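User: quick one
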Amino acid sequence: MAKVGVFVCHCGENIARNVKVQEVVDFAHEVPGAAVTEHYPYMCSAPGQQLVIDAIREHGLDRVVIAACSPQLHEPTFRAAAAQAGLNPHLVEIANIREHCSWVHRDPIAASAKACQTVAAAVERVKRAKPLDPIEVPVTKRALVIGGGVAGIRAALDIANSGQPVVLVERQPSLGGNMSRLSETFPTLDCSQCILTPLMVQVSRHPLIELMTYSEVEAVSGYVGNFTVRITRKPRYVKIEDCTACGDCAAACPSPVANEFDMGLSTRKAIYIPFPQAVPSTYTLDADRCLNANLQSPTGFRVLGCIRCAEVCKPRAIDFDMQPEVVERRVGAIIVATGYDLQIGQQARECGYGVYPDVMDGLEFERMLSASGPTEGEVRRPSDGKTPADVVFIQCVGSRNPKHGVPYCSRICCMYTAKHALLLRHKVPESRAFVFYMDIRAGGKGYEEFVHRAMEEERVMYIRGRVSQVYEEDGKLKVLGVDTLSGKQVEINADLVVLASAMEPTDHGMIAGTLRIAADEHGFLKEAHPKLRPVETLTAGIFLAGAAQAPKDIPDTVAQASAAAAKGMELLSHDALERDPTTASVNQTACAGCFECLQVCPYGAIERQEVRDRQGNLQRYVAWSNPAMCEGCGLCAVTCRGGFIDVAGYSDEQVFAQLGALGPLPEVLGR
Amino acid sequence: MSDLQTSAVRHAGAAAVPDGWQPQIVALVCNWCTYTGADMAGTTRLEYPATVRMVRFPCTGRMSPLMILRAFEQGADGVLVSGCHPGDCHYVQGNLVARRRFTIFRSLMDFLGIDLRRLHFAWVSAAEGHKWARVVKDVSAAVTAAGPLPRPPAADGWEGPALPAAEGDGPEEISAADAEALRDHLRRTAAELLESGRAGVVIGHRRGSLPGRLVPVMAATAAECRELEWGEGALNNLVTYAATALQRAEKAALVVKACELHALTGLIREGQVARERLLLVGLQCPGVRPEGALAAKCLGCSGAPHPACDLLLTPAGVSEGGSGAAAPAADTDDARDRQIAAIESLPAGERWLYWQRQFARCLRCYACRAVCPLCYCSTCVADKHRPQWVPTTIDARGNGVWNVVRAMHLAGRCTGCDECARVCPADIRLDLINRKLALEVERHFGAAGLEPGEKAALVDFRMEDPEEFIL
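Assistant: Done. Structure below.
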């Protein structure tokens, strides 16, 4: 029989005013198993806690009920006191007779009756409690950063600078991401390449960063502190260690293709370097575009139709026989920084994108402005190469409009449009810039001032309203719209139209499926809590940085990357993790293997395990709940029809016992 | 008033309520939102009736409908379940899955005649102290109006009000010559399957010891194939034996009626049998006659073999099937629906009495469980005793809990083969309960969930699931 100590707190007058403490003590004394019943004016005070500790030691109590305030306040206090007396902290139960009783019920008889029943139910519950020890999870001291844009670069550098090794995986041949495409950055007009490329070089030289470009994360298994990551290294057909990036191969290559780094505004060769400052500084053979692609002799051997690049390569760095390589890395923390794409949707097409060559999106215009871009920074119409005189910028194309695009605001467009208009005026002083906007969102340090600068100093014409139509007439783009401030129709004969189209997560957030983390309906990765846990995911050990989580600008991206890195470092600073032991466990002997628990688990904590007989033959599969991942919500326990899953601390037995003590009022309380 | 209503007995709950009586309400609340919201009501010193007793859970997803039942069974006059608003769940989706369970549980309670003034659901966030106080006041008022929980009535007589007869044309009749042709096709096909090694065993029917009744058989030899039979006496749902057959042979052929096929889909989805190890033989069905009359499930059925079967046998011959036809929706005309509607038309108290009479007959023989293709747990929750989920006593409490458990476990899974009702020695209309819940699941959550690979309705959720009953 359990020996339960019941300690009733007066909380000064807070409880005692409406609850007759002595009656609660007397009632509790009659509950089977209650060995000691005490009361004290302030149980949470040092003497109050001492009373509990002494009683545990003196009477050999094996369970404790504290009838006092909400467990949200002092459960940790009394658990610590119990531990001090040598009692497992999970054998302490709090009966809330203040917030849920004395403070909300003025009638002393009704309040006392409720307090008595609450305490009795707590005793019944704690009698079925089991001692629980914290779960220890070892930590692999290495981080994985997915995405080599500015977010991934910052996060990787922060972690590596703290002394922890990092694996940085980038899908493209070079680090840099979208930021490396930008000409200048708002609101300071820093050259984007000038601030980013030094960081890229730091990454490549960092002794603790293993850089894998042209590589993709294929699969992730495991759990916090213990992930196993499978990474495919795509063949470059160029040996990085031998390539000197002299460029002879590209000069010799006969196969020109659209250059995706310049958003298709220029061409590159099938063997190429994305941009001169690329890291690693090495050429890559685009196997799909190479003349040798799909060439096969009738006997199945690959034949080479063109070896001009290999012929001119003095260091003999080209290797046509390179194969994809799959590598595995064990990591303790994962930072996801997969970034964004610009969305070309229905509304962009209505504005003439894809129809007229002189309608372009923000990133294309960005490349045109860039000194390293296809026009070396000169603004020219793609159609005829002439310098445009009148340029119309249209904001919120496909954004903030659930009917024709996405409902959210892409956050950066107001600012980059102001920057585009301003840079246009710098580069083509005689030009005129018009901006169609819904409203200006310039919340950021120096942002509002920047927009004003564009409006006032550069006399960019801001027109509040939407564009209804863009069509070509007499070599001009006619932009029809409404100025909603004056209520007048506006018609502009433009030479160039630039669309601020919506940001969307790279590949619509496909990475969420690989990592088994949550994404919202648009594919943006979901944070654990929008305010209190903004860089964590619900899967412990996986953190978010940059536009993969939500649209954001460079300062916010970098700040979030450092935040995610800090969270990762916090995790990696431990040799082992301690987790709350109130987790689910499966009775594997009884498990029927329907795996509905696996389907409802929000954390991917349920795994299939094989049951084999002594000869090693597979008998069946049963569920297993990984205590390192389980958060103890109990969804699986209720889903299991046979009741083969239980949650420590909230076990079926405890709940049933507690419910059993909450029947009709006993006679003695009915007064 | 219909005959049905006039014949109903006075509701036992109308007994005099003592002066100053206060209801006892058990509140099942989640730790993160409602428990904290109730704390806030306390710190704000809001006053509300001292009628609720709180039980803290990590999440509404941890609250089994059986725990609600347990509270009633222990004498609570009302139960309040409360958790985080959709989208606020600490565990992301706990309350969304729970919402589906509660929707169906509440429908079941309503169908069984529990006064819904006793059962309430609410979303109360950690910031909504005022809402918590208001919810408790409203729920207290509703439960007070419902009065003390009535004690189970003495079931005066086993017979309840008569339900309208189930009507329908049933499948096309099969002439004697056609029946013989069909049987020959079956025997020959079975023998070929064994001989060619496409199946190691054929699960079918053979003649039993009672006239006109067929019994299941696992035919593994040519001789046994020659004994296979088919017809109105082929009552058993052979899907129940699929897993056992697969322990004997690597591949098994299974003779199935269209009404049984979806139980198999359920077993495949729940990983109990592998589709690729089964060869489904669908036969033109004349309908089954358990007690001489055509079974209610057959009245609206054409009798044609289901096109998803691998082999389709009709009197005309044998053809290859295997089209991935989707499961038919539950919401089609069914002879049983008039009977369900008749029960629903009764006032709650009389509905309750109807089912109390039905359950009073329950012998707890668990034949319903034994015959159900989807009851495959190694140990049934009814046989567990720590805690005692289901009281073992054969009385209103124990029988009521058992039948609710059974119904909840089949909700969203039961495919209406009606085997449970057929084998029930006490003739409890389990088929009506199952059919009612199948309709409720479909009405609220759509017809999804019968394709292998799809999630069952009650382990799935949508943000926009209906919740008009939640406060």
